[in-house]
Amino acid sequence: MKKSRFTESQIVAVLKEGETGIPVAEVCRKHGISSATYYQWKSKYSGVQVSELQWLRELEAENAKLKRMYADLALENAAIKDVLNRKS
Description:
Elements: H1 8-19, H2 24-31, H3 35-45, H4 50-87
Helix pairs in contact: 1-3
């Protein structure tokens, strides 16, 4: 997936600018984005604050870490069961 030229905090700032009453076409032209991009961002980030985005990223990182830990333990558990079944 292509990396965005804008950070999430910049996207939130662009959306807030659009909420102030400035026409969407003007906001898009100012920031060099298409109206489709603006509305995609709006559907994804509407009503979200920058602090909430940071909190979400931290949760996603923690979740990924826990998934890795679970996968390692499940693999180790399967290996132990395999060894115990061979000894029987």
